[in-house]
Please model this.
Amino acid sequence: MTDESSQQAGQKFISDHWLHLSSRTRLTLRKAGFYGEKGARNPESERGFGPYERIRELEAALGRLSNHVEGAGAALSVDEVALACREILYVPEWRDPEFIRLAFRAMASQLRDAAAPPIAPIEARRDAARWRARAATALAVAALPLAMAWALVGGWRGQLVEASAGLYAAAVVGAALAWVVRRQSGTLRSLDLEQQRLQAWERHALMDDVPVIGAGHRFRLEQLASCGVVVPPIAFDLVAALEVETGRQLESIG
Model:
């Protein structure tokens, strides 16, 4: 997605959520000359000064995140989502709960993709690993007696070379069996870990249709991390910023 289309999507997001934005954020956008009183983008606005010179970057970040959440266009990578989240947190005046919730929903979708592999592939791969282990074990069980018989016959005949070859073959078959069993056991353990991550996501899922509040999502992020899910630090930064901004709004209402 180009920066221009991202900015257009960002402008639409700001305009659609204008009444829900904090008064501080609306004032910041108006003072920058980019938006009017009702949230309409001023096409004649010029680049401002101070933190306002990055308004276009804010719009582009909001555009990329909103399209990612809505499934419009190409999905963003983890690094692209993190970069857009950092743009939103860059200037204190931009840390509006609406913006942070959008960023957190995009980050949650990345966590879901990373933490929740589909169940069917896990079960299919586990079954395939078990069948491979069974087939290798059956072959080894069949080959090991033959190798031992070869060695015994060679010894009975007094053929040292034949007996040694039989013992060597038996050792190779035994080592191969041990390697296969160890390899398949490692595969099964890896699949079990994936299953645990899936179950962890189901228990502590960050659902898109649940409003992002703050403290509860911090607890769920910590639970996901304790279950082996890699949670980017920016996710905790978003929750911390949301807690601060939500508390500030509650104080202003009180």
